[in-house]
Amino acid sequence: MALAAVFIDGEYLRKVRENEFPDIFPDYSKIGSELCKRIGPEVQLLRTYYYDSMPFKSQNPDEKELQLHEIKRKMLDAFTYFEDFQVRKGRCIKVFDARGKPKFLQKGIDTWISIDLTRLSATGRIEHAILLAGDGDFVPPVLAAKEQGVKIWVFHGQSFSRALYTAADRRIPITRDLLLSIKRESRRIQS
Q1: DSSP string spanning 56-94?
Q2: Calpha distance 171→47 (Å, rounded)
Q3: Which of 44, 56, 175, 181 might form a disulfide with 92, Cβ 3.0–4.6 angstroms?
C-alpha cells in the first residue's frame, strides 16, 4: 500500500463547484478517499488536509457578516469530526482595488499547504500528494516534493495555473462524475 495525503484549497473547490457544478453539494468527508481511489487501488489515504479561512469580519460587524461567519464556523467545526481529516485555517482580509471597490483575500492558505506538502514529503510519510488546487504559488513545494520521490497529482477545474499544471506528474479534471460520487444527501452544510 502506498500512502497519499490530500490537500484541498477550500476556496478553489468552492469556486469550481459554484462556477462549473452549482447543483452538486459534496460530502467533504468522502473527498480524500474518493481521490485516492481515482489514482489507484493500491493508494491508501493518510489524511485529508482542508484549507480555508473564515469570512471577513469587520471591527463592528453587521448582521450579514455575523451570519456568514457563524455558518462558516459551524461548517469548519463539523469538518474536525471527520476521520483522517485536518482543517487548517487562514484569515480573510479586505483590500480595495484601484476603483475603491472592496475585495476580499485569503491569507495563510498557500503557506499552510506548502508547509504540509513539504513536511510530509521530506519525512517520507507519503508517496503520493493529491492537490485539489489551481494556484501557481504551489509550484515550489510541488517541485520539492517531487525531488523527494513523491508523485504529484493535481485535480483541477477549468481555471488553473499553467505552471502548476506542468509541474504536476498527473493532472485530472474535476468532473461531474467525480462530484456526484461524493454528493451529499442533504444540504445541511453549505460552502
Answers
A1: P--SS--HHHHHHHHHHHHHHHHHTTSTTEEEEEEEEEE
A2: 20
A3: 56
Written as one letter, the residue type at 135 is D
> What's the rounded Cα separation, in Å, for the pair 161 and 148?
23
Write out the residue range of the structural domain in which residue 31 sits: 2-181
Residue 160, C-beta contacts closer than 8 angstroms, at least 6 positions apart: 134, 154
- CATH number, domain containing residue 49: 3.40.50.1010
Number of domains within the chain: 1
pLDDT tens sequence across 98-124: 999 988 888 999 999 999 999 999 999
Residue 57: per-residue pLDDT: 84
Helix (H, G, I), strand (E, B) or coil at 186: coil
